[in-house]
Amino acid sequence: MAMPDAEQQASQPGGVPSALGRKVRRALRDRSPRRPRIWFEIALIGVSYWVYSLIRNAVPEHEATAQNHARWIWDVQDSMGLAFERTVNHAFNDVTWLIVGMNYYYATLHFVVTIAVLVWIYRRQPGRYAAVRTALFATTAVALVGYYFYPLAPPRLMDGMDFVDTVVVHGTWGSMASGDMANVSNQYAAMPSMHIGWSAWCGVIILLLAKRRWVKVLGVLYPAVTLVVIVATANHFWLDAVGGLLCLGFGFGLARWWFRAHPQQLPATFAERTESGTRRGESEETAAVPQTSAATSPAPAEAEPAREPAPKEPVPAAVSVPAPGRAQRERGEQVEHPQHTGLSERGGRTPVGASAVGAHTEGEPEKP
Predict the structure, then answer these.
(1) Sign of dihedral through CA atoms 110, 112, 115, 119?
(2) Hey, how many other C-beta atoms are within 10 angstroms of the C-beta on 19?
(3) Which residue among 24, 61, 124, 306 is least crowded, i.e. fewest CB within 10 A of its CB?
């Protein structure tokens, strides 16, 4: 019986505790790039390139098959009227300083520019580093499939085609598939061209993420010049370059699927990512609240009609009480100050609850 996955177990009673289940579900949903660590990235690049070279060079060198594939590629290009590699190879080989410079270009910039772009993104736009690195690694990994299933002899190794191996002829160093390095490298791993795959990766990243226009122009020119170099040095057919671009498309597609965004759509820094993530979380919670309250809270009662304010009673004016006369003081009569007022017999206001000055209650004998 198939075991339920972690998310199903988290929802089953008696399975994974709810807190752990929430963490699992959150980890499965959250594919946002993590902050890169320099030691981990250096180790990852070193180990990945070592594994790539190991697998690439461990592919059996089927020379006969590689020669047949090279002949087939040449015939296809010739039928299209685009079999120009030999003409370009001989034309550049006649200019010694230029072809020697191309040999060094082929041997060095392939690594230097790629690492420089990785370092630039790591330092300046770390929020996008994981996405661009994933695209590069996926591009390189899928190229191994081509090396294994489609061994291809480069033009310089084709039998009877009169191509010039420029590294051997001019005694320059650097090509891992020519000269002394040929003994430790698979010479028939030409399809796809990772010189084009990596240079096009650099060009796309620079074009999308650089701010200065002249830097963007250099990013576009770099893979174009690389295409001329790989053809002039007879290391690749132009169809090998097409294979490299297909691998690059797979790499960017995988990064887009995993991170749910293209590199240029991700925040450049983690400060921007945190701020945008907070706003996004607040908006989602805000959007969810009306739905819950609408389902559970009763409809509001009809508003009662506004009542007219009751008329205010007029405030009686203050009444000044004359000071008691001398005769009253002599008799020791106590005069109380009024607290309430009422209407007197004459229509005026007199104190209520206390006798007016000099007055007495009807029916009482007057005090001596």
Answers:
(1) negative
(2) 9
(3) 306
